Amino acid sequence: MSKHNYFGLKAASFLVSGATRGAIYDTDKGSVFSLSKDGKIIVQKLDQGKAISEICKEDGVSKKELQNFLQKIVDLGLGEFAQEFRAREKVEIPSTQDSLSFVHCEITEQCNFTCVHCYNSASLCKKGKELKTAEWVRVLQEVYEKGCRRMQLVGGEPFCKRKTLFEVAGEARRMGYEGVEIFSNCSLLTARDIANIKDLKISMASSFYSSNEKIHNAITQKEGSWQKAIENFAKIVEQQIPLRVGLIISRANEATVEETKAFLKEQFGIEHIGSDYVRPVGRGCASDLISDSMISAQAVTSPSFAKTDLSTFAKRRCGHNCFMDKICISSTGDVHPCVMERDVSYGNIRRASLEEILASPTAFQYRGMSKDSIEECSKCEYRYCCFDCRVKARNGSDNITAKPWWCMYDPLKGEWKIHKKGGGESSIEARGEC
Question: Where does the record place the Radical SAM core domain (predicted)?
């Protein structure tokens, strides 16, 4: 090792600097490793071509101590020693700016339920002139040409407009869309609907709020909704149609979440069961839907991130993790950044082509909104491995660059804040692997 006077990160490893600390992203394995302030500075200098001997002299670090530190990075597969400096291989980072991976199609805003938390504030009332099948087909062809192969048909309740729903689904399958999903409350399904879904090889998704019938019906504000849901879940599963279920957590059902998941799995064998907290949009803005325990449960107080491969790393450096390659098209033709982001429209497909809409200043701003443009997050070393939801972060305000309120990390201090039992607040140092 004495002959090795240089050190560099491997091609798939990237150093990201925060205001205080740093992080090394291993995009081969998807892992992220935290660096102390001094460690960050040392790796920066070495990766730019400084010799180990120079670092020891400048920073007053013993060669043995420095080599032990660097050996840890080598053992993690993140870097390597060398006898001479080698400029890093340039890794081609894929761009996703001109492509789409997913589209939400709101077939109708009408719904036979009036769920207390509905992001779309849906009801049986129409809000405008809804798109016809021919209009959907035209825009879905444009979306397809952007590389998109997955879509969700949603409402309102899409079975309120059954004819259009199946016409659009059929055209999408013929067009080449590989993943077509209908999101429905499953209360209006008929035997013929289920047969059509199976014939078209479409998957289903639904919301279910509680194994307790009274709680579920209170949330949907529709008597009999619980019974209809479980009857049709059984029929869908019997026909071997893929079904996933989501639980939206509010004050009314937070105590029954785990037993509801168990109920769905035991009764119907449903494996894909997700849960999420009420988002502050539409009727979900009502403050009485949220409890203090729900707020506490969402707080992130230690590093906990999904795997970040090269594609994910590239996407989050270039733009927003959702807005970049997903869109929502409303029943009246407005193109939104997200199914939840109702206040922003890029344009309307009745007045412009999708190409023109995605080239608009608003679309450019939202699709390119990486964490580098978010308050405080821009100074955080975890900004490219941390999932972002703008609707949730701005929490009903007009501040589109608000820091996620649930994140307890302070990048200026390099500390995670934690709440003590009985109230109060303290801090812990951000810990890492090297």
Answer: 97-321
